[in-house]
Design goal:
The complex is a heterodimer of chains A (261) and B (278).
Chain A lengths: L21 H38 L3 H16 L2 H18 L9 H26 L3 H9 L4 H31 L17 H12 L5 H27 L20
Helix pairs in contact in A: 1-2, 1-4, 1-6, 1-7, 1-8, 2-4, 3-4, 4-6, 6-8, 7-8
Chain B lengths: L1 H4 L2 H36 L3 H16 L2 H24 L8 E2 L2 E2 L14 H34 L2 H9 L4 H31 L11 H9 L15 H31 L5 H8 L3
Antiparallel strand pairs in B: 1-2
């Protein structure tokens, strides 16, 4: 089919108008998944880095770093992602008028990515902060006894333990983030030349055929597949993080499924 | 400025804020009821009932909920129209699904084509409430199911030893005690529900998101007495702040409620409370 890479603008230009075949729906919605994966993966990678920093900030004793981190987490966790998307879009639109530098920000590929990145950073930071708080006292004391402090202590003891404790919750956050990527094209960010994500195409088909019973289950199947992939990848990392522990004390991956954010 | 904020159109955004609050007020108990029914069904000793309960919990949790919102609204709408079609127009011979079209007789349209505007709005709103209740009911069912299992076994065994029937044990012992275990999950759910309200916009209800876009857009002096540029950013900033305040307030209230519920319970929290004043 010509629609395999339609979501990134390669292949047949016109979307199907009539005589919708099942094959068309599957390929087109599948090509939309490219965007979901793009947003999810990049936001997750950058968000992870910022989240570590914010979690450390929230854990610090100095008001100067703790207050901004707390506020950052509160603002992004306390308001709907949907509104954040809208606000960011119109903010970038406003800024675009001020300086052409902001041109790419109004496009989904950058603007929405920034929102998702900040949002997942806030949620992950909260998870990491919880993990930092529950690092066993003995491990940090042992690190002190070995003469580790500052950066080496963080790199060798605190950070790995934090990741190990946070990992199951962080897996949920990752699944959750991928589900949240479906909001992008429903929130102001225009789908340029109808290059949308999976839900955008599913919605397109449902609107055109008045039959929600085919596109949405296809979308659901794709997402369940994606979720399984994420779970297995994160499961591998979890195995590695826990490799020094005897099998019976390892943390199990408990899946708490997604809600809207 | 005061005049500007009280124009007719601005009154509709205030109304839509009320709509959101109303939605929350209706959906929360409805979802709780759905959840309670689902959790009780999942616990049932009759296998098919238990399957229905578990299936309900499992299906809704696996899929991005926004897809559910888009799906349910059309599906519910069509289901209602189809049932009415079968009931009201029995002598209609053509199939309902004609290729890509969904055709029902005029009398089965929901709401009726000639109904006044407010009926259409109310109908859209009720479909939205029902969708919210079904989706959040599944999450609530999951929380309550967990909470029912968290009630200490000894309590239930004691009830049985006193000769209570399973029904009495359920209503008199388990249900009063499960709330303290359910509350953390439920309050989390409440926060999520608050944050899900802007999705109303997707369901076609003219909610705050709609009005913020509408009012914020550039206005020229030809159409209004108060021309302004593109203010949508400020409107969404206001919405953002509204939601932040709302979540903060609920956090405080739920914290209080938790302290209240913990009183006298057989948990570490209850124990701590019992010892504190002494």
């Amino acid at each position: 089919m010509d629609y395999g890479l339609r979501a990134v603008g390669i292949g047949e230009r016109l979307l199907p108008r009539d005589d919708f075949t099942l094959c068309q729906q599957i390929t087109l919605i599948g090509s939309g998944m490219i965007w979901n994966i793009y947003f999810g993966v990049l936001a997750l990678i950058f968000g992870f880095l910022l989240a570590t920093a914010v979690a450390m900030g929230k854990n610090s004793t100095s008001n100067l770093t703790r207050k901004p981190s707390e506020w950052f987490i509160f603002v992004f966790r306390g308001s709907p992602l949907f509104i954040q998307f809208f606000f960011a879009y119109f903010l970038f639109l406003q800024l675009k008028g001020v300086h052409p530098f902001f041109d790419p920000f109004t496009a989904a590929w950058l603007g929405a990515l920034i929102v998702l990145f900040l949002n997942t950073a806030a949620y992950s930071a909260e998870i990491f902060h919880g993990a930092l708080q529950s690092i066993p006292k003995g491990e940090v004391e042992a690190a002190d006894a070995y003469g580790l402090s500052g950066w080496p202590r963080f790199k060798r003891v605190v950070w790995p333990t934090m990741l190990r404790l946070a990992w199951p919750a962080y897996t949920n956050e990752a699944i959750f983030l991928f589900h949240a990527t479906t909001l992008v094209f429903f929130s102001g960010f225009p789908a340029w030349q109808q290059r949308g994500d999976a839900l955008y195409y599913a919605n397109y088909f449902a609107d055109k055929t008045f039959n929600p019973f085919i596109p949405y289950p296809i979308l659901a199947a794709y997402f369940i597949l994606l979720t399984l992939v994420i779970i297995s990848l994160f499961g591998l990392v979890n195995r590695r993080l826990n490799r020094h522990l005897p099998a019976n004390t390892r943390q199990k991956m408990k899946l708490r499924m997604n809600l809207i954010r | 400025m005061a005049c500007y904020l009280t124009t007719g159109k601005h009154m509709s955004i205030y109304w839509s804020v009320l709509t959101v609050l109303l939605l929350l007020a209706i959906t929360a108990p409805a979802a709780l009821a759905f959840g309670f029914a689902g959790a009780s069904a999942a616990r049932s000793r009759i296998a098919p009932v238990s399957w229905v309960g578990r299936g309900y919990i499992a299906i809704v949790r696996g899929v991005p909920d926004i897809a559910f919102f888009l799906f349910f609204v059309i599906a519910l709408d069509q289901a209602i129209e189809y049932l009415r079609h079968r009931a009201l127009c029995p002598d209609w011979s053509e199939p309902v699904r004609q290729g890509n079209d969904f055709v029902v007789c005029a009398a089965a349209k929901m709401p009726l084509g000639n109904a006044p505007q407010w009926v259409h709005e109310t109908y859209g709103f009720s479909i939205a409430v029902l969708t919210f209740a079904i989706v959040f009911g599944a999450f609530a069912a999951n929380v309550l199911f967990g909470a029912m299992r968290a009630v200490p076994k000894a309590q239930l065994e004691t009830a049985e030893a006193y000769g209570m029937s399973p029904r009495q044990t359920f209503w008199r012992v388990m249900v009063p005690q499960m709330w303290v275990f359910a509350l953390p999950g439920l309050s989390n759910l409440w926060m999520v529900l608050i944050k899900a309200t802007p999705l109303l916009f997707l369901l076609g209800v003219e909610d705050i998101v709609y009005w913020a876009r509408e009012l914020g857009g550039t206005k020229t002096s030809r159409f209004t007495e108060y021309p302004h540029g593109d203010w949508r950013m400020w409107y969404f900033l206001a919405l953002l702040i509204f939601y932040l305040i709302f979540t903060r307030a609920s956090e405080i209230v739920l914290d209080r409620l938790m302290t209240r519920l913990t009183r006298g319970q057989a948990t570490t929290g209850g124990e701590a409370q019992r010892k504190a004043p002494a």
